[in-house]
Amino acid sequence: MNDRPNYITPQGYARLRAEYDALFAVERPRLVETISWAAGNGDRSENGDYIYGRKRLREIDRTLNRLSKKMKAAKVVDPARQEDRGRVFFGATITIVDEDDREKILTLVGDDEADAGKGLVGWNAPIARALRGAGVGDVRRVELPAGPREYEILTISYPTN
Q: Where does the source fall among the domains of life (predicted)?
């Protein structure tokens, strides 16, 4: 498997757990009940409830398996407990500026939590790897698909307890 730790915030882990619990404790049992009812109705070859139910059950089981593996491999790290708040580490919210004076606010989170539209960047994304360990005022070069860019760190903050 992967040698890198699968870091995740407590909130990200809670979301994975909630999704797992909802599928396992609510949706799956309801679906099994529907499949049992549909199986009792006779010919299964043309029974839409039975056919769709079995297909959906396989999808749920695959999702449960995937979520279980993610939770087992997860290393929960609380950014609020970061001792060195002057450098960019996991969970940092940073403001960066590029060569064209465009500012961006990013938060470095676990790869399973990444959402670029919300400014949540996965810990192993190229920009996150380039910014790790940087302090305010440091300039880091990032190799992006569109070409190299340089970013200066303007601010670094971490959540408080």
A: Bacteria
